[in-house]
């Protein structure tokens, strides 16, 4: 079983839609959760990060973590064509042999059409 | 503007060539990383350097040889590569190699490597 599972899509939505991106994971030691956005021909840029369970909001973006279900989500409200990119989830542990190492999902390719 | 700069952006080489990828970070970080990104696969961690010392080699073939002369520069020396090594090679840095919420990794834009 992969450490982190993420549906690669592609996901195509109209402008203004609410987008939901998700990842599941198997390692209960993961405590830190991140979302990266990667535009075509660019490197990943950190978009959101959260610790443990709960929600975090930043503008149109909301990150949710449900540790009991080992499930994380990124919501994008009022999606814009400029949100078209690949979104990568990543997570790391705070103990054990995996301390500090980031584990990535495969990325979900999102297209927002005008 | 990214604080992590990678050169070259694109590289085409034959299987018998020797080339090097360069990464430079201007963020004052102490940890640097090499990742391999292939289509439809998660980022694969290759090497980790923390305060110029290699702390992780993720079972990478010896045809990839990293070098970290100081905390700001990281190289990946390539020789006798195989076609399956064609991928995007990403460099990243973080304040130190222990990760955590206060230490996200910052990525460069990568080198697109094609092996003929």
Describe this protein's structure.
The complex is a heterodimer of chains A (114) and B (116). Chain A contains no helices and eleven strands. Chain A has strands at residues 4-5, 11-14, 19-25, 30-38, 45-51, 54-58, 61-66, 71-76, 85-93, 103-104, 108-113. In chain A, strands 2, 4, 5, 9, 10 and 11 form a six-stranded mixed sheet that branches. A five-stranded antiparallel sheet of chain A has the order 1-3-8-7-6, with no helix packed on it. In chain A, strand 6 (54-58) and strand 7 form a beta hairpin. Chain A is globular and about 40 Å long. The mean pLDDT of chain A is 91. Chain B is mainly β and 116 residues long. Chain B is 0% helix and 55% strand. In chain B, strand 4 and strand 5 (44-50) form a beta hairpin. Chain B contains no helices and eleven strands. Chain B is globular. In chain B, strands 2, 4, 5, 6, 9, 10 and 11 form a seven-stranded mixed sheet that branches. In chain B, strands 1-3-8-7 form a four-stranded antiparallel sheet, with no helix packed on it. Chain A binds chain B through residues 2, 4, 6, 8, 32, 34, 36, 41-46, 49-51, 88, 90, 92, 94, 99-107, and chain B through 2, 4, 6, 40-43, 45, 48, 56, 90, 92, 97-101, 103-110.
- Elements of chain B, N to C (H/E): EEEEEEEEEEE
Number of E-state strands of chain B:
11
Query: First CA to last CA of chain A: what distance?
Result: 38 Å
The value of Rg of chain B in angstroms is 13 Å
Instruction: State which percent range the strand residues of chain A make up.
Output: over 45%
Helix/sheet category of chain B = mainly beta
What's the rounded overall pLDDT mean of chain A?
91
Biggest beta-sheet profile of chain A? 6 strands, mixed
Largest sheet of chain B: 7 strands, mixed
Give the assembly state of these chains.
heterodimer
Share of helix of chain A, binned: under 10%
Structural class of chain A: mainly beta
What is the rounded distance between the termini of chain B? 32 Å
- Order of SSEs of chain A: EEEEEEEEEEE
Mean pLDDT of chain B: 89
């Amino acid at each position: 079983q992969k450490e982190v599972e993420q549906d690669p899509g592609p996901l195509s939505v109209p402008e203004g839609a609410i987008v939901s991106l998700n990842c599941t994971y198997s390692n209960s030691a993961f405590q830190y959760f991140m979302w990266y956005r990667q535009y075509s021909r660019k490197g990943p840029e950190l978009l959101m990060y959260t610790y443990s369970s709960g929600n975090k909001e930043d503008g149109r973006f909301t990150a949710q973590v449900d540790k009991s279900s080992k499930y994380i989500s990124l919501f994008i409200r009022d999606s814009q064509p400029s949100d078209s990119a690949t979104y990568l989830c990543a997570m790391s542990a705070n103990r054990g042999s995996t301390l500090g190492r980031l584990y990535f999902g495969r990325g979900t390719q999102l297209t927002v059409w005008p | 503007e990214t604080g992590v700069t990678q050169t070259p952006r694109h590289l085409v080489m034959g299987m018998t060539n020797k080339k090097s990828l360069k990464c430079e970070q201007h963020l004052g970080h102490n940890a640097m990383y090499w990742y391999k990104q292939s289509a439809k696969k998660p980022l694969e961690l290759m090497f980790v350097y923390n305060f110029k010392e290699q702390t992780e080699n993720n079972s990478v073939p010896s045809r990839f040889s990293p070098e970290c002369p100081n905390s700001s520069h990281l190289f990946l020396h390539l020789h006798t590569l195989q076609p399956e090594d064609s991928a995007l090679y990403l460099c990243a840095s973080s304040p130190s190699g222990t990760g955590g919420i206060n230490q996200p990794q910052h990525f460069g834009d990568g080198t697109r490597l094609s092996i003929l």
